[in-house]
């Protein structure tokens, strides 16, 4: 019996190969046999050497990591629409990899008994599978060969230490070929290239590639005046075209690009210029495949026109972070680069969201990152904390303006969620009307918090005062920070409250210098790195820099450096605070990458002795800093 | 024999399908969530009054150990005598529309057969339970015997305990779907809503780290 869930499953499956090759009726029959399975993050779906199940999987939502159990290296990350775990069933052998839910995922388990006869009956489906097994790609026809295959190849996975082998992957290429006939005027070609946002145009004759025109040709031959803009394509094109078969590895593509001195390659059906073109490879595609280079990632972000294009880039950033830590690069450099990239992602998300609004923004606005992102300390993907501020409008338009910006913020937070930033559990997001105000409303709010600080106000301002401009009008943000400093100067008692708030953080060690672990809850017996070690530092840095009116330095580590300059007699303490912040941050990121979480809680028995000593050393610094705060602000931590 | 017994019908007076259904409740239910069988369901109705309004359709699916078998679902449309044209635009179910329709009694029979002694899950369960129980009463049958979990209650429990977060009294299925990034393509069909509810239910359990059935009933509603 076909029901509406089966129809929905069939809809989804039919959009992805090889199921798009099945007739509708059979697809529906197959869909009715599917089991929909939910897997929480980090749950195992199958393990190495396990006997094959009677079904294979398709990712509906989320992502599945295929890992080599011996090294825990990531071999492939299966995304929405990808199929995995099929080859062992076809070959009737054991699984060769571990499959673990990388994110909370929903999978379709498709019974092999129903699918196999269909694959046999429909030659195209069978061909697809054979080709994908043979070429070791998950989807030989797709535009992006994101990873390696159905997950069971024996090829060596990419990893920080084995990056070279990564190069033997098939090269990703773009299937959308922009082409025209050889008689087309050059001007028309330039217009079309602009419209399609491409850097090269293929010139075809009867469907076969005969030449190529790139941006460089236009510059060298047309703009320089050698040819008029009315010249035909055949006059300026480079011919013959350098063609390759589509089974080209990244390394081969790199070599080919270097050899030919051109930044585009044409892929044809059989690799010769005598068969129709199937795709184009640009230097950019190759760079992106080779990898984790900040410049390339940045370019990728800027080029993203859809949110889903950003997601793989975000994964690339994560990989880059892992590589940097592996290389033991200075933490300051690492945080700088990664924050820049994260920031660029947010900016791009805003641009995408803005382009999806019906009308342009009515007045100037600014998107603020709060909390760790505002301090440029967000290395791992954690919660999103943000706010929106817009220029004042007359009362008559107040409501419409607010509606517009909350709607915009809703679009942005939804997209940020899509690329991996969780929603803030306390709803501190611009999509919440309480965090989306005009400048004057924000000023009133700030005055309220500062003039009558209760525990809630202190907490709110602790989060809000680390705001940083992500996108939009800088003047609005400056007006707001000036107001914060002026108000704080007017009500000095606020600093005392903020300081006592900072001292309220529980201390990291007990009486005998042993670690204090959580007593109950999900993280029982784990050490809360954020609350017990990082938070005291960031909170103290905030109070001290507010009192010194240190503007536009938000990162905790840099705040301490600045404080060391301003207070020479405490310089040594502040320097060690700056060092401790960096060390703890690195600790957290390493833990987070290891466990694919926020890195906040640490199981102490998983640490080496050396690591424990390193951690403890920072605690002494925290203690000294808290003493300084206590004396300066006369605040007591017994409230 | 007490007066109470005199009023209460003997089980044997009910139709066979009810007896079969009631017989399923003799054994003690399993305790672990991973073993328990859940039936997630939703009803589309002509309105919000238990007495005046009628069920237009029932959608239900079985959920066990985080898995839903696409084949094991129930999707029935009921013949309408009473008809309130106002609710049609919401649900898109037209009076005597194209879908095959069955009588209320037949629908209840299939529903009881489908749910057996499983734990029921619904969003704002009080409403759906009320609609089904009223319909059962019309057919001269007692109320449902199953234990019930309400996802709207469960969802509230997943939220942060913080003075900064004002919890709403009610969370609609749309709000929860948005928070959990669940596609709302089939919203306002009984089976589509049941599927969204099932996903929300699974995500709530994961966030609450529940493993035992009794934890679900802690502050959820249990029966009527």
UniProtKB/TrEMBL annotation, chain A:
CDD domains: CAP_ED (cd00038), NT_GlnE_GlnD_like (cd05401). Keywords: CBS domain, Transferase. It holds the Pfam family cNMP_binding. InterPro entries: CBS_dom, CBS_dom_sf, cNMP-bd_dom, cNMP-bd_dom_sf, Diverse_CBS-Domain, DUF294_put_nucleoTrafse_sb-bd, GlnD_Uridyltrans_N, NT_sf. Residues 173-229, 237-296 form the CBS domain. The keyword Iron does not apply. Residues 141-163 are annotated as: Disordered. It comes from the Bacteria. Residues 18-136 form the Cyclic nucleotide-binding domain. GO terms for molecular function: [protein-PII] uridylyltransferase activity. This is Nucleotidyltransferase. It comes from Sediminicola luteus.
TrEMBL record, chain B:
One of its GO terms (biological process) is DNA replication. Residues 37-210 form the Exonuclease domain. GO terms for molecular function: 3'-5' exonuclease activity; DNA binding; DNA-directed DNA polymerase activity. One of its GO terms (cellular component) is cytosol. SUPFAM superfamilies: Ribonuclease H-like. Pfam families: RNase_T. InterPro entries: DnaQ, Ribonucl_H, RNaseH-like_sf, RNaseH_sf. DNA polymerase III contains a core (composed of alpha, epsilon and theta chains) that associates with a tau subunit. This core dimerizes to form the POLIII' complex. PolIII' associates with the gamma complex (composed of gamma, delta, delta', psi and chi chains) and with the beta chain to form the complete DNA polymerase III complex. This is DNA polymerase III subunit epsilon. It comes from Sediminicola luteus.
């Amino acid at each position: 019996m076909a029901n509406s869930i089966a129809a929905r499953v069939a809809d989804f499956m039919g959009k992805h190969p090889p199921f798009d090759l099945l007739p509708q009726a059979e697809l529906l029959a197959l869909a009715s046999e599917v089991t929909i399975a939910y897997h929480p993050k980090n749950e195992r779906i199958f393990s190495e050497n396990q006997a094959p199940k009677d079904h294979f999987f398709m990712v509906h939502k989320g992502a599945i990591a295929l890992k080599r159990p011996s090294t825990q290296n990531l071999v492939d990350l299966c995304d929405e629409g990808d199929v995995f775990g099929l080859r062992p069933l076809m070959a009737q052998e054991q699984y060769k990899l571990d499959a673990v839910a990388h994110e909370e995922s929903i999978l379709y388990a498709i019974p092999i008994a129903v699918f196999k006869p269909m694959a046999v009956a429909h030659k195209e489906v069978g061909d697809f599978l054979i080709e994908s097994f043979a070429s070791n790609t998950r989807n030989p026809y797709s535009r992006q060969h994101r990873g390696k295959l159905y997950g069971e190849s024996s090829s060596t996975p990419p990893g920080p230490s084995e990056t070279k082998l990564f190069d033997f992957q098939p090269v990703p290429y773009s299937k959308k070929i922009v082409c025209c006939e050889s008689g087309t005027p050059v001007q028309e070609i330039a217009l079309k290239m602009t419209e399609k946002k491409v850097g090269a145009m293929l010139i075809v004759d009867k469907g076969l590639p005969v030449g190529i025109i790139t941006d460089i040709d236009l510059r060298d031959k047309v703009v320089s005046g050698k040819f008029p803009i009315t010249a035909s394509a055949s006059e300026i094109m480079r011919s013959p075209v350098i063609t390759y078969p589509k089974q080209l590895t990244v390394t081969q593509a790199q070599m080919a690009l270097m050899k030919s001195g051109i930044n585009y390659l044409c892929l044809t059906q059989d690799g010769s210029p005598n068969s129709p073109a199937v795709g184009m490879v640009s230097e950019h595609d190759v760079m992106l495949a080779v990898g984790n280079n900040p410049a390339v990632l940045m370019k990728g972000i800027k080029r993203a026109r859809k949110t889903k294009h950003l997601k793989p880039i975000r994964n690339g950033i994560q990989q880059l972070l892992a590589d940097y830590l592996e290389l033991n690069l200075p933490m300051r450099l690492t945080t700088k680069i990664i924050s820049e990239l994260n920031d660029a992602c947010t900016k791009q998300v805003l641009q995408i969201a803005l382009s999806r609004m019906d009308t342009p923004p009515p007045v100037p606005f600014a998107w603020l990152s709060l909390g760790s992102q505002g301090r440029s300390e967000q290395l791992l993907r954690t919660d999103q904390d943000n706010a929106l501020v817009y220029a004042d409008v007359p009362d008559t338009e107040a409501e419409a303006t607010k509606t517009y910006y909350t709607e915009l913020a809703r679009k942005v937070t939804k997209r940020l969620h899509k690329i991996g930033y969780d929603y803030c559990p306390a709803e501190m997001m611009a999509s919440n009307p309480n965090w989306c105000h005009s400048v004057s409303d924000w000023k009133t709010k700030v005055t309220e918090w500062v003039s009558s600080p209760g525990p809630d106000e202190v907490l709110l301002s602790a989060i809000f005062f680390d705001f940083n401009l992500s996108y939009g009008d800088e003047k609005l943000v400056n007006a707001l920070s000036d107001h914060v400093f002026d108000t704080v100067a007017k009500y000095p008692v606020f600093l005392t409250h903020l300081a006592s708030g900072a001292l309220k953080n529980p201390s990291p060690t007990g009486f005998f210098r042993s670690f204090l672990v959580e007593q109950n809850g999900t993280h029982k017996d784990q050490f809360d790195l954020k609350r017990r070690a990082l938070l005291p530092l960031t909170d103290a840095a905030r109070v001290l820099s507010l009192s010194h009116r240190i503007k536009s330095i938000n990162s905790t580590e840099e705040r301490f450096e600045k404080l060391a300059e301003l207070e020479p007699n405490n310089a040594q303490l502040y320097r060690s605070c700056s060092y401790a912040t960096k060390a703890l941050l690195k600790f957290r990121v390493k833990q987070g990458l290891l466990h694919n979480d926020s890195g906040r809680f640490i199981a102490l028995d998983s640490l080496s002795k050396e690591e424990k000593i390193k951690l403890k050393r920072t605690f002494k610094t925290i203690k000294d800093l808290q003493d300084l705060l206590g004396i300066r602000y006369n605040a007591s931590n017994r409230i | 024999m007490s007066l109470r017994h005199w009023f209460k019908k003997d089980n044997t007076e009910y139709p066979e399908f009810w007896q079969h259904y009631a017989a399923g409740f003799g054994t003690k239910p399993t305790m672990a969530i991973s073993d328990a069988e859940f039936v997630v369901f939703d009803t589309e109705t002509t309105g919000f009054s238990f007495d005046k309004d009628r069920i237009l359709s029932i959608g239900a699916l079985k959920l066990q150990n985080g898995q839903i078998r696409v084949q094991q679902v129930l999707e029935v449309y009921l013949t309408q005598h009473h008809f309130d044209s106002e609710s049609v635009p919401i649900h898109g179910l037209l009076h005597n529309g194209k879908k095959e329709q069955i009588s209320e009694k037949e629908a209840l029979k299939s529903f009881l057969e489908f749910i057996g002694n499983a734990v029921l899950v619904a969003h704002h369960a009080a409403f759906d339970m009320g609609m089904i129980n009223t319909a059962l009463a019309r057919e001269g049958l007692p109320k449902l015997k199953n234990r019930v979990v309400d996802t709207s209650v469960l969802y509230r429990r997943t939220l942060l305990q913080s003075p900064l977060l004002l919890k709403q009294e009610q969370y609609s299925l749309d709000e929860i779907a948005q928070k959990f990034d669940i596609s709302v393509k089939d919203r306002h069909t009984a089976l589509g809503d049941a599927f969204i509810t099932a996903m929300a239910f699974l995500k709530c359990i994961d966030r609450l780290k529940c493993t035992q059935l009794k934890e679900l009933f802690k502050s959820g509603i249990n029966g009527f």
